[in-house]
Amino acid sequence: MNSKIPVIVVVFVLLAFYGCAPVVYAPRASLDTPARHVENGIRFLNAGKVEDAFREFNRAKSLDPGYASAYVGIGFCYGLMGNYEKGLKIMEAAGRLLKQ
């Protein structure tokens, strides 16, 4: 009987720690889409956060290299950052994607 008491105490302590552990949620795949990242990029642009918008548009492009809206956003960001030539090239790539 005495040998069971330490085991029971350990079990209760482990259960107490387990109950205090943070809940881990699986990422929602529906939020990691090119359309969602472009939408977030536009929101960042409206808030004046060009670097954050640039990151979102690039994520959309990495998820779908044929997603023209991502290229438009990237080109727009390059323009806002003063790199007009690169922005124009990216916009032209978006135009080619739209013609396909």
Brief descriptors of the model:
100 residues, mainly alpha, Serine Threonine Protein Phosphatase 5, Tetratricopeptide repeat, 5 helices, 73% helix
Describe the structure.
This protein is mainly α. It has a single domain (29-99), classed as Alpha Horseshoe (Serine Threonine Protein Phosphatase 5, Tetratricopeptide repeat). The chain has five helices and no strands. Helix 2 runs antiparallel to helix 3 and helix 2 (34-46) runs parallel beside helix 4 (68-80). The mean pLDDT is 84.
CATH class: Mainly Alpha
Categorize the overall geometry: elongated
How many distinct beta strands?
0
C-alpha Rg (nearest Å): 24 Å
Overall pLDDT: 84
Query: What's the helical proportion of residues?
Result: over 70%
CATH superfamily: Tetratricopeptide repeat domain
Order of helices and strands: HHHHH
Largest sheet: none
Quote the CATH topology. Answer: Serine Threonine Protein Phosphatase 5, Tetratricopeptide repeat
Q: Structural class, from helix and strand content?
A: mainly alpha
Number of domains: 1
Name given to the CATH architecture: Alpha Horseshoe
Quick overview:
This protein is mainly alpha-helical. Helices cover 73% and strands 0% of the residues.
How are the SSEs ordered, and which strands pair?
Blueprint: H1 4-20, H2 34-46, H3 50-63, H4 68-80, H5 84-99
Helix pairs in contact: 2-3, 2-4, 3-4, 4-5
